[in-house]
Design brief:
With about 300 residues, the chain is of the alpha/beta class. It has seven helices and eight strands.
């Protein structure tokens, strides 16, 4: 792959004054800056400059420059994305084979998600980065990634999915209409490692029973504790010592101590059930709904060295 940036004359860009002339000026400046940064080995910064040149005055050949910069910087998902955008409408069709060869070389360096969304006007985020409206293809570093569906500025569904190098994984975002849903996938992001398997985390009936006992025992502890203190104060401040009053106070104190023990035991039990349900249980006891297996295919590949010429 040739390591030279594309030498593209820019004198024909945006003829005239006004907004067109300003766009030409910005594109020329950024393109020149990109060439200098590329020559200095500052490939990521060069990619930014070329991107600004393209946004000011789009020219297909600049996409190849951007791709080459990201490729040299080792940012392969961005490189693949821009290589593909370029070869959709190449300026020099004689370079197609070279670009496709480089893409083929990069196929195991990236993973892909083909993302659909069951919600209308759904925007897609991958690891917090906006990727556009669904359906969309997202090229990523191999590994697990957080994928979110955003509707009207709110996350309606979020899940973890894994795409290994050289694979394409189909993802469908679907809200349950009750609020954001997060589906945890063990593996890179979960305890114990291993291949990710989607699992909705829910707390079972034993947890809720133990929690209820904790609350009830705690309330009883407070009631009998207050009664014990009152009985003691009444006994100590009265002009005569009533044996029945003393006996009642002793009973209340005993019950209070028992309730403290029950509260503590029930609380510990509830925590134990919660830990079990979150980290070790397979689910909430119901049979899981059948999941479509991710469709995995080899990513088509290509590559590039370039020496295109063109005019803005």
């Amino acid at each position: 792959m040739a390591a030279a940036v594309l030498a593209l004359p820019v004198t024909g860009l945006g003829q005239g004054d006004g907004e067109g002339g300003e766009a030409k000026h910005v594109a020329e400046e950024q393109f020149a800056a990109g060439k200098k940064l590329f020559a200095a080995g500052k490939y990521s910064k060069a990619a930014v400059a070329f991107t600004e040149a393209y946004e000011a005055a789009p020219h297909q050949a600049v996409l190849a420059n951007i791709a080459l910069c990201y490729d040299k910087a080792g940012r392969f998902p961005e490189a693949v994305t821009y290589y593909r955008r370029y070869i959709e409408n190449p300026v020099d069709k004689g370079k197609n084979a070279e670009i496709r060869k480089r893409l083929q070389e990069l196929r195991n360096e990236v993973g892909e998600f083909d993302i659909e969304c069951g919600e209308p006007k759904c925007l897609v985020r991958v690891d917090g980065e906006d990727r556009g409206a669904a359906p969309i293809n997202a090229v990523v570093e191999p590994g697990s990634h957080k994928i979110e569906g955003v509707v009207d500025g709110e996350v309606v569904v979020a899940l973890m999915e894994r795409a290994d190098g050289g694979t394409v994984v189909r993802v469908r975002l679907q809200s349950d209409k009750t609020g954001p849903v997060f589906v945890a996938a063990p593996g890179d992001y979960g305890p114990g490692g291993g291949e990710p398997t989607d699992r909705e985390v829910s707390l079972g009936v034993p947890f809720w029973v133990a929690s209820g006992v904790t609350v009830a025992a705690g309330a009883a502890t407070i009631v009998f504790g207050v009664r014990t203190l009152k009985a003691r104060d009444d006994y100590e401040t009265s002009d005569y010592h009533d044996a029945d009053m003393k006996e009642q106070g002793e009973r209340d104190r005993l019950i209070t101590n028992i309730m403290i023990g029950v509260t503590a035991a029930a609380g510990v039990t509830a925590v134990a059930f919660a830990v079990h349900d979150v980290f070790f249980a397979d689910g909430d006891g119901d049979e899981p709904e059948p999941q479509d297996e991710p469709e995995v295919t080899l990513v088509p590949g290509p590559g590039v060295g370039i020496g295109l010429t063109g005019r803005f």
